[in-house]
Amino acid sequence: MFENIEWAPEDSILGLVESFKKDCNSRKIDLGVGIYKDEQGNSPVMHAVKKAETWLIHSESTKAYISAHGNTDYCYAVMRLVLGGEASLIKPSRVSITQTPGGTGALRVAAELIARKLHSKKVWVPDPTWANHPDIFPAAGLELGRYPYVGVDGRMDFEGMIDSIKHMPEGDVLLLHACCHNPTGFDLSRSQWREVFEVVKARRLLPLIDFAYQGFGSGLDDDAYCVRLMAENLSEVIITHSCSKSFGIYRERTGSLMVVAGNSLQANSVRSQVALIVRQIYSNPPSHGSLVVSEILKSSELSSLWREELDSMRSRIQYLRQLFLEAMSGHGLENKFRSVIEQRGMFSYTGLSPAQVRMLRDNFSVYMVNTGRVNMAGMSQDNIPYLAKAIASVS
Ligand code: LMR
Fold first, then answer.
1. How far is ligand 1, taken at its centre, from the CA of residue 212, in Å?
2. In the predicted model, is pLDDT for residue 87 greater than 80?
3. Quick check: CB of 182 below 6 Å from ligand 1?
């Protein structure tokens, strides 16, 4: 019965991990999956996370199921982190929040909610976008639309983006990256966000904001600007959030789905539908990551340690951007790579073609996504000279 099942294509991002592991070249460089790495190329557990885990080992008293919506303390702590706590203008009762298995889980549940319960079945994603977005929405039976994000010159195309949004049909879902756009690293300025907000409001679109890199752009609050702008001024917004990167707990699958509704009655109806969807797909989320995050956020000592660690990760990536540009300038390629210092977050869109990416992998053991996206955190003071030489030789 299984003889006609063909091989599925390799995942364009996660597939790189296996190939990298098998590569015996001692100079190999992994710029693939979006994971934070230190100068030695390791992704250590953050100190704040270790401390919270040590405490949990002694204090956790049960492994019984948690509800479909997950850990309530975690949900409220993350809601404050995302929507701004005391300063937020949004009544918490208007928000349905559910802990999900990572940001991907949140997106998949959101897709299912849209497919089952909303009138419009179309989700617009930026072109380019995270490689998994165009698969997640059709998997729930939704139609996919694309709006321009980067122009032929390899720079951000805000005019194209806003013009396309102005022509989207009322009620359609508009996916936005809150910060650290994946894969390009190009983010909107505050005034550009306000322009997007005005059009979204006028066109009566439903924003679905993917917020996976909080703290990696400019800071925890700055990175939430567009989320708060939309959530405070529109009656309906969907937010998918991830703690994977901000807390470095990738494998613990810790995310959330927030649905901001017009009033508490609507939020509760949404919440009941989300519980149904969750029950049918995975019943309830894993617990560990949510306990870690809520422990950190409720302790002022752990919270400040975590914030310091997150700030230093962000600063290191910014420093690497500078170093990389200097190294490329040394090869006379400053103009080609100048935008690396305008981009933010983990990723940079290098403009390298799939053929160049292939050559870098085959001839130099440098691994990056075939769209030319690099994970900046995979660079180091040590490997940048080799990397720059390799890129220069294929440019
Ligand atoms: C990435 O874009 O590299 C990360 O979000 C990891 C993933 O799941 O693709």
1. 10
2. no
3. yes
Among 16, 107, 130, 346, the mutation site with the greatest number of ligand 1 atoms within 8 A of its Cβ is: 130
Ligand 1 close to Cβ of residue 34 (< 6 A): yes
- Which of ligand 1's atoms lies nearest the C-alpha of 102? 8
> d(Cα 212, Cα 244) in Å, to the nearest integer?
8
What letter does residue 229 receive in the DSSP assignment?
A: H
Collapsing DSSP to helix, strand or coil, 39 comes out as: coil
What 3-12 contacts at long range (C-beta under 8 Å, 24+ apart), as own/partner pairs, is 11/131, 12/131, 12/369, 12/370, 12/371
The predicted structure's pLDDT at residue 88:
80
- Of 25, 99, 91, residue with least CA distance to 67: 99
The pLDDT > 90 percentage for the chain reads 96
Ligand 1 atom with the shortest distance to the CA of 130: 2
User: Are the C-beta atoms of residues 227 and 95 closer than 8 Å to each other?
Assistant: no
At residue 370, φ and ψ (nearest 5 deg) are: -65, -10
User: Model-level pTM?
Assistant: 0.96
Distance of CA 363 to the CA centre of its chain: 31
At residue 192, the pLDDT reads 98
Going by C-alpha positions, the residue among 146, 103, 105 that lies closest to residue 123 is 146
Q: How many angstroms separate the CA atoms of 214 and 57, rounded? A: 27
Is the pLDDT confidence value at 90 over 90? no
DSSP-assigned states of every residue in 96-157: EEEEESHHHHHHHHHHHHHHHH-S--EEEEEES--TTHHHHHHHTT-EEEEEE-B-TTSSB-
User: 274 C-alpha vs ligand 1 centroid, how far in Å?
Assistant: 24
Q: 236-260: per-residue pLDDT in tens?
A: 999 999 999 999 999 999 999 999 9
Q: Is 365 left (phi over 0), alpha (psi -120 to 50) or beta?
A: left
Q: Half-sphere exposure of residue 12, counting CA atoms within 13 Å on the CB side?
A: 17
Contact 149, 343 (CB under 8 A): no
Residue nearest to atom 9 of ligand 1 (CA): 13
